[in-house]
Design goal:
Number of helices: 2
Shape: elongated
Order of helices and strands: HEEEEEHEEE
Strand content: 25-35%
Distance between the termini: 54 Å
Structural class: alpha+beta
Strand order of the largest sheet: 5-4-3-2-1-8-7-6
Number of strands: 8
CATH class: Mainly Beta
């Protein structure tokens, strides 16, 4: 069977779409994500994020925790932090919450690198998929 240029282009295009679809990473909904950071001295807590399929987010910063909203479309993402409750924390942990909350709110894109969700904005944040 001989392929014309038009058929070759069509087959090549279909192959490219299939390859892109097969390799495109899926967003890690409903997975516990831990910020790639060491706990502060005297604490075991590391900031955590869990994003549910309907757009609700469970957010733990260094000290505060609460809910948020997340919109994911392709490789774009928008995170809105809602009411957070304050827990008793050291001043050092409390001081880290505002910069982290600001960095999350400024995120515009995401990508997966193996088991790491990379959130891209003015500050890049890396969250590892929890293994438990």
């Amino acid at each position: 069977m001989r392929l014309t240029n038009g058929k070759r282009c069509f087959i090549g295009g279909v192959a490219m779409v299939l390859a892109t679809t097969a390799t495109a990473a899926e967003f890690p909904f409903e997975r516990e994500l831990l910020l790639e950071a060491k706990p502060l001295p005297g604490s075991k807590r590391v900031p955590m994020l869990e994003i549910l399929r309907e757009g609700r987010a469970l957010i733990d910063l260094w000290c505060k925790s609460g809910d948020g909203r997340v919109e994911v479309s392709g490789d774009t993402i928008k995170i809105t932090i809602e009411a957070m409750k304050v827990e008793s924390c050291t001043p050092e942990r409390t001081a880290r919450d505002e910069p982290l909350a600001g960095a999350l709110a400024a995120i515009t894109q995401w990508r997966m690198e193996d088991d790491v969700l990379v959130l891209i904005g003015p500050t890049e944040l890396r969250y590892t998929l929890s293994s438990h």
